[in-house]
Q: What sequence folds into this?
């Protein structure tokens, strides 16, 4: 895909999304990790080790073509999306924990995403002339993920009232731009998407269900509180498909690599919504349970 809509529009859309994330973060969100180390460590181990291993097994089981296999592994390596905060709010999870996990995941992903992607490319060898995410491209991942977040946090630090006022407009703008850009990308590659949708639908739905279940059941088995487990479930189960799409198309220059994330990005909304009703905490009133406890 060489159109300006995707080569420029997708990174810009993701940049605005990550800027919006930064506007909602403070250093206290990173410090809060120390107050809930057990939940955070369990969530990170599940997301960074367990899920990529499970995804690798699913890819081999479904015998996906190499390029789609790498796309699935890239999706598995992507951190939780900001949508996880919304789902955690709807189903009475610990939103403060979600915010902290999103902050930490965004930093860790700069290292783990290129590593897992390079492993997948080396194993499945989808390209004859491409070795993977080398240093220059890894720096692009850093720029795409962290720089907008850092800028948003700096704005919040220097002008908290402005950041608070811009939070909603930036969220709206990011959604609108993202819909336009992805809509254009889908339209220009409709035949390619349709041709692979059936092949990818089952594995992406299964991976989403497994991710959500692991994110909830593993913390609960290790005696993490229910609201915290709900938060980790959505943080682990809702991957940042937009990030995977941007890296696939803008950094690695492959539309096919982005197909698993594109299919997952549509289906996971319905899967996560249904799963939320199964794990919802019904023990507390909605207002008290969903109110964020984070520091401003």
A:
């Amino acid at each position: 895909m060489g159109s300006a809509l995707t080569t420029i529009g997708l990174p810009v859309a993701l940049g605005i999304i990550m800027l919006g994330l930064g506007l909602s973060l403070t250093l206290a969100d990173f410090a809060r990790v120390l107050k809930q180390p057990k939940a955070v460590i369990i969530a990170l181990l599940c997301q960074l080790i367990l899920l990529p291993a499970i995804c690798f097994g699913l890819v081999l089981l479904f015998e996906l073509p190499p390029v789609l296999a790498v796309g699935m592994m890239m999706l598995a390596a992507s951190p939780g999306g900001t949508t996880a905060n919304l789902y955690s709010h709807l189903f009475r999870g610990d939103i403060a924990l979600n915010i902290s996990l999103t902050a930490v995941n965004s930093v860790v992903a700069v290292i783990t995403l290129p590593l897992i992607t390079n492993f997948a490319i080396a194993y499945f060898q989808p390209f004859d002339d491409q070795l993977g995410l080398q240093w220059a491209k890894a720096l692009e991942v850093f720029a795409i993920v962290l720089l907008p977040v850092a800028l948003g946090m700096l704005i919040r630090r220097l002008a908290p009232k402005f950041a608070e006022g811009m939070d909603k407009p930036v969220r709206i703008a990011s959604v609108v731009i993202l819909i336009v850009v992805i809509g254009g990308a889908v339209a220009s590659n409709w035949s390619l998407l349709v041709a692979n949708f059936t092949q990818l639908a089952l594995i992406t739905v299964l991976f989403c269900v497994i991710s959500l279940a692991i994110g909830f059941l593993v913390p609960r088995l290790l005696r993490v509180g229910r609201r915290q487990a709900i938060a980790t479930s959505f943080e682990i189960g809702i991957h940042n498909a937009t990030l995977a799409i941007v890296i696939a198309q803008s950094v690695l220059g492959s539309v096919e690599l982005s197909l698993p994330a594109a299919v997952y990005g549509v289906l996971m909304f319905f899967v996560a919504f249904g799963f939320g009703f199964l794990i919802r905490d019904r023990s507390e009133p909605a207002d008290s349970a969903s109110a964020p406890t984070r520091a401003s």
Q: What stands out?
A: Residues 285-296 have pLDDT under 50 and may be disordered. The CA atoms of residues 49 and 271 lie 23 Å apart. The two ends are 42 Å apart (CA to CA).
